[in-house]
Write a structure and sequence with these properties.
Helices cover 66% and strands 0% of the residues. It is mostly helical.
Length: 197
């Protein structure tokens, strides 16, 4: 529930703030034409999305540091282990240590399989590897593990993670299709993983 709420809030914030300058060139051109005409118009949804059903060009905005972004992703991954493992509330009674171990194993497996499934599907579709989006897919898998990592058998965490990677891909692409600029993919990570979890 926490991740669904966080994902929804990040979507609302991205809609209110709007896209970064230069991210969606055709949307900016449409808004300039609107200003030139001098009267208020309703912005129409994107119907003709380019030739042969392809989306118009989406500008990649550079300026991030891949090593620092990767470091931040890995810190978040270790944080998820403490978050999910600490959610049991205690380790003092008999048998709770085994539950904490199971929670951590399920969390790691969900994240790993989400990253792998996303990585291979992205490579098949685009022909290139990307570490930053793979880390986001891993975080989506860990988010999807939050709800039931203490109850699910270990083998089901692989299936849960694989589907979570596809949920990340679907929600991330949905944001691009709808021309929502979410620089961190927070909506796809938290809402997609939380919804599937």
């Amino acid at each position: 529930m926490v991740h669904l709420c966080g994902g929804t809030i990040s979507l609302i914030a991205a809609l209110l703030i709007g896209p970064r300058i230069g991210r969606f060139p055709e949307k900016e051109a449409r808004q300039k034409n609107k200003v030139k005409k001098g009267k208020q118009q309703r912005i129409t949804p994107l119907r003709n999305v380019g030739t042969e059903g392809k989306l118009p060009k989406i500008a990649e905005i550079k300026g991030h540091s891949v090593p620092f972004a990767s470091l931040g992703g890995f810190i978040l991954m270790f944080g998820f282990l403490a978050f999910n493992g600490g959610s049991t509330g205690e380790i003092s009674t008999k048998g709770v240590g085994q539950i904490v171990a199971k929670v951590m194993v399920n969390t790691i497996l969900c994240g790993a399989f989400a990253a792998l499934s996303y990585l291979f599907v992205h490579f098949i579709r685009k022909g290139k590897w990307t570490i930053l989006l793979t880390i986001n897919a891993c975080l989506t898998g860990m988010v999807s593990a939050c709800a039931g990592c203490d109850k699910m058998p270990v083998w089901t965490s692989a299936i849960t993670g694989s589907i979570a990677g596809m949920a990340y891909l679907a929600f991330s692409e949905l944001c691009l299709i709808m021309r929502i600029d979410d620089p961190l993919d927070a909506f796809a990570v938290h809402f997609g993983g939380g919804l599937w979890g």
